[in-house]
Write a structure and sequence with these properties.
mainly alpha
Length: 296
């Protein structure tokens, strides 16, 4: 069987069986919700806003990389999927907290925001399966002005997503920016590992700065439990840290040379970003455990 046919068939069957699995789950949930006297919102596994938030910047980055001859489409998907998912999830979390009607809505909105990470993970998974290291690059002579245009376009699209969920000003936190500045300065200037390129160090720096933001936020959050005016800034740092890190890593995946991207262990980078986000959610935004629900 021709390689392209196998690829198309594999992707089709992946989505086909995945769709059947999620349809079965949603069908059971619908049947149960119908029995309730006070209906609860149904979480579908296709949220158009989050889907667009992940895929529109992805398609712009893919179009740019393929058109310029910088890389195969699968490389863009593999490197960009998880950072875009975390970016979209963090932005939707900010919007959720800004528009929260009551504590009973928290679980639903957190689950909804995690869909973006799911979408990004699927994108990276498809890209990983189709990575073509033998792909012969046919680079075009592109000007820096073109790169700036693509960067501004994707930044504008992400900014439009932010504006959809909340005011742009809510996504700017000077404490988080200064945390990133501090760790970036230390990591990039003090690091003496000459075996790693500046490209690798930038991605590692974003992971370390994201983790530092979450740790600092957790220290403040746990210290000031019960004092909402003091907890608010801590929650902002914990959400915006991974958001900033994921944004920079996505831009790196869009504009770094392919040879340097292959040097970077992006699977490790993506996994660390997921660990940081999971740690933050479980420590601050975790749902009730099974034992708590039944009074254990």
């Amino acid at each position: 069987m021709h390689t392209n046919v196998k690829t198309a068939l594999g992707i089709f069957l992946f989505f086909f069986f995945g769709f059947l699995a999620l349809s079965e789950l949603v069908g059971y949930q619908i049947d149960y919700i119908k029995t309730l006297d006070a209906p609860i919102p149904l979480l579908t596994y296709f949220k158009l806003e989050l889907f667009a938030f992940v895929f529109v910047p992805l398609l712009v980055a893919t179009g740019w990389r393929v058109w310029s001859g910088e890389s195969h489409w699968s490389s863009v998907w593999f490197h960009s999927g998880v950072p875009l998912g975390i970016l979209a999830s963090s932005i939707s979390l900010v919007g959720m907290l800004n528009n929260l009607g009551g504590p009973e809505e928290v679980g639903y909105f957190i689950g909804e925001s995690l869909l973006a990470i799911f979408y990004g993970g699927v994108v990276s998974f498809i890209g990983y399966l189709n990575l073509n290291t033998g792909y012969i690059l046919k680079k075009r002579n592109t000007s820096n002005l073109t790169k700036v245009f693509v960067m501004l376009l994707n930044t504008f699209l992400i900014g439009a997503g932010m504006d959809y969920y909340a005011e742009i000003g809510l996504f700017v936190d000077y404490s988080t920016v200064l945390i990133f500045a501090a760790f970036s300065s230390a990591f990039l200037l003090v690091n003496r590992d000459e075996s790693k390129s500046i490209y690798y160090l930038v991605c590692e720096t974003m992971v370390i700065a994201s983790l530092a933001s979450v740790i600092i936020a957790l220290i403040s959050y746990t210290t000031y439990q019960g004092h909402l005016p003091l907890m608010g800034p801590s929650i902002a740092i914990g959400i915006l840290g991974p958001l900033y890190g994921a944004f920079v890593i996505f831009q790196c995946a869009t504009f770094f040379p392919e040879a340097n991207l292959r040097e970077i262990n992006f699977m490790q980078i993506s996994w660390h970003l997921l660990e940081i986000c999971g740690f933050w959610i479980l420590m601050v935004l975790a749902p009730e455990s099974f034992l708590e629900m039944f009074g254990g």
